[in-house]
Amino acid sequence: MDDGLAAFNVERMHAGSWTTGDLLADGIGQLVAAVRTLPMMSPRRVVIVSQAEAMLQPKRESDAAERALEQLQALFDRPEPMTTLVLVAETLDKRTRIYKALTKSATLVDCGSPIDVASAARWVKTRVEAMHVEIDPQGARVLAALAGFPEQPSAKGRTGDVKRLRGEVDRLLLYALGQKKISMDDVRAMAGPAALQDDWAMANAIEDGRTPEALRQLALMLDSGAAPEQILGQLGWLVRAKFPHAAPDSLSGAVDSLFRTDHDLKRSGGEPRVLLERLVVELCAGKRARVGARRW
Q1: What is the pLDDT of residues 259-290, one digit of tens each?
Q2: What range does the domain containing 32 cover?
Q3: pLDDT per position as a tens digit, 168-180
Q4: What pTM did the predictor assign?
Q5: CA-CA distance, 194 to 220, in Å (whole number)?
Q6: CA distance 15 to 240
């Protein structure tokens, strides 16, 4: 785009505030008008919409929102040949009708969103280093876990909350303003103890047989500084107090797993994280609590 003509032919819009049916209808109306406007002394016009997920996946359904989405779909079905429309979104629900309409006439570009704790931690490290600051690797992992990223990529394509992760990093950079390196203590101070760990979240996940969540909570405990022996003690209490009533058939196997893990930890028979992960997986497999079981 010629610099002298960019002011006439490049338009930027923000869809993040289009939170109600009326606002969505008004915003999409402006968007359609901008796209249908002919370029001025240029072969092409560019319209860029940030936070487009708010427009493509409105939180509040209403008649006004439905009519607005129909208007948007009509734009996708009949694109303006002299305008390039760029939609920037964090996540998209591939099951929606509007997404399917979009894919028929659009080119989708994945900009490398993080999908698990490891990739999210690298994302944090890159973002922090762009501000000429270093961050403790464990601190980056804790931020990733706080934003809900799983230890392993989800087979169903579920990831953490990128928006929350960005917000946590921005808060951390503000908290550590003027520092050259961000430590794990800085992460703890910024997030707060309650945010870093719900003491019984892992146990509750095991009780429900939710293996991925139990592993995520285990990682969060380890990354926030909990001793492996302390975690093993909590798991031992869980087996002694809960398994006899809720999973009696699995009690013997659970006790064997506990003793084996305790033995391996004391004799350095493996990486503590790996040993505890194996134990959590075995306990989840042996215990499927009833839906709505009482918490402690």
Answers
A1: 999 888 888 777 888 899 999 999 988 754 44
A2: 6-105
A3: 898 899 888 889 9
A4: 0.47
A5: 12
A6: 53
Distance CA 64, CA 25 (A): 6
**Residue 43, domain CATH:** 3.40.50.300
HEC per residue, the chain: CCCCCHHHHEEEEECCCCCCHHHHHHHHHHHHHHHHCCCCCCCCEEEEEECCHHHHCCCCCCHHHHHHHHHHHHHHHCCCCCEEEEECCCCCCCCCHHHHHHHHHCCCCCCCCCCCHHHHHHHHHHHHHCCCCEECHHHHHHHHHHCCCCCCCCCCCCCCCHHHHHHHHHHHHHHCCCCCEECHHHHHHHHCHHHHCCCCHHHHHHHCCCHHHHHHHHHHHHHCCCCHHHHHHHHHHHHHHHHHHHCHHHHHHHHHHHHHHHHHHHCCCCCHHHHHHHHHHHHHHHCCCCCCCCCC
- Number of domains composing the chain: 3
In terms of domains, do 290 and 205 share one? Answer: yes
167: left (phi over 0), alpha (psi -120 to 50) or beta: alpha
Residue 1 falls inside a structural domain: no
